[in-house]
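re: ur question from earlier - yeah i can do the single chain one, its not a big deal. heres the input i used so u can compare w yours
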Amino acid sequence: MAEHVVGIDLGTTNTCVAIVEQGVPKVIPNKGGYRTTPSMVALSESGRRLVGHLAKRQVLTNPQNTIYAAKRLIGRKWNSTAGRTVAQTCPYTIAEGPHGDIRLKIRDQVYSVPEISAFILQEMKMIAEAHLGVPVEKAVVTVPAYFNDNQRQATKDAGRIAGLEVIRIINEPTAAALAYGFGKNLERKVAVYDLGGGTFDVSILAIGHGVFEVISTAGDTFLGGENFDLRVMQYLIETFEEDTGVNLREDRMAMQRLKDAAEKARCDLSSAREAIVDLPFLHTSPSGKVFHLQEPLTQQQLEGLTEDLIEQTIKICERTLASAGVDRKQLDDVVLVGGMTRMPLVQRRVAEFFAIEPCKGVNPDEVVALGAAIQAAALVDEQHDLLLLDVTPHSLGIMIVGGYFHRLIEQNTTIPTRAGHVFTTVRDNQTSVKILVLQGESEKAAENELLGEFILSGLRKAPRGQVEVEVTFSISVDGIVSVAAKDLETGREQCITVTATSGLTEDELKELVKQSQAYMIELRASEELERRRQQCEKLIDSIRELLPQVQEAMSGTRFGRDAIAKAEAVVRRAEGELARADARALGDTLESLDRTVSMFRNVAHKRSEAAQR
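and the output i got, formated as tokens:
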């Protein structure tokens, strides 16, 4: 049997899973028939975990225990701007983790961000397994192109906790380009403009005869639909305060209702000129006075509130084209990805900037998952004629004297790649060097992301500048960074494989994987109990429906009365086992119920035939 590897677009707002079947990439719908699943996780009062639509349905009544947009926090430090911003605007509680990472509190439990993302990925795994009828253990997962190594590692850790081996992490715009060009034998230069719920990316690619080469990529991992919704919320809060004197910022339930209404109005204004934000009973004062909100919002007002956000994306597009050395006139197509690209002003500004009408031939919500599935199929099927050449989104280098950042590998370098540089000692009689491995674009080392550090010792004592040390960086196709430092005089070498951190230790990860496996066993047992319960109830209903006919046909004989009594005993036993929720016992009882129904149907059928004669 062929190995099934799925593609998953782990989005800020929604998540989507896809697979290639008989050469055709297709999205797998969830149990409710929806093709995307909200990226939301909640705990009910009873402690039951709710994921996707179940979490979204109760968010208004349980906002402080419902996590949304966790992707914006994944792989980030507690003291990051993103962490502070989310803490100020979201209804759930954010806390500092033991390793300087961000943790999320739901009721009395604290979770890491990869754990929350794992719950969503686990849901995708179950959706795929229900569709395929076999276990799914491997996946290709997409991330924003501008994610750094820590954010990518945190995403891989989320997959591991969910019981998935993430065999490749690929960039979302690249995945979209794969879906756009798959099976079309195109030779084109395209820009992929990806504005989603929480992040923005743009990539320039050359596509030709099954080769997808990324030339340049850039983005902002904290710019997306959430920012647009926040602008609408702020407008509504200020308008409400002007009209009523009431500040809604401390009312968690009102804030969640406002967020929902802001998102709905923003979506409605993609196709309508005006939307009404109607929120009755939004706030009750301590004196018992009730306040309602009813506020019209026009497309023009929304554009005025958010125009600067769209301009930020256009500036990033400008930088990306310059970095790629590509003139916009050389582009054959612009592909729009992400739900925010449905906004008319986004479409107009993209068309104006690139001087080309964007391609409308892809579904912005599904195209990334489809591309991930195409890459997954190519990785497991050697006959797939597809080559993906991606780039490293951030520069890599080391800290040098003065606290400066010396780049060894520039951003937008095609991977895999390797680069080295010879440095000299900076102090007299220096016998060791400390290598700080950094990622980022700032000239100041302290402003970049520290990926790892190591020491090369045993250098010869000599005046400064006389001992030479060669530092070599290499990046694999999976984006794994290795760094080596060699004393050119003695050949002594020290090297490390840079393992980015998600904020979780290996021991924590192993424990979370164990908990996840236990949860899946419990969940499957619960689902099996529910399946058996439904079967039992259906069979009991059939017995009761047939019982009058059987009594009429058989109660005149001792054998018949015994058979009816046995059937009634089987029903009573089944009802007792249903009340105790005993799955194992129900399995045995199902057979007895099934035999009884078959016998009753046979009796009823013979009685019907006799009546017809």
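Residues 225-307 form a domain with the Actin; Chain A, domain 4 fold (CATH 3.90.640.10). not sure if urs matches, ping me
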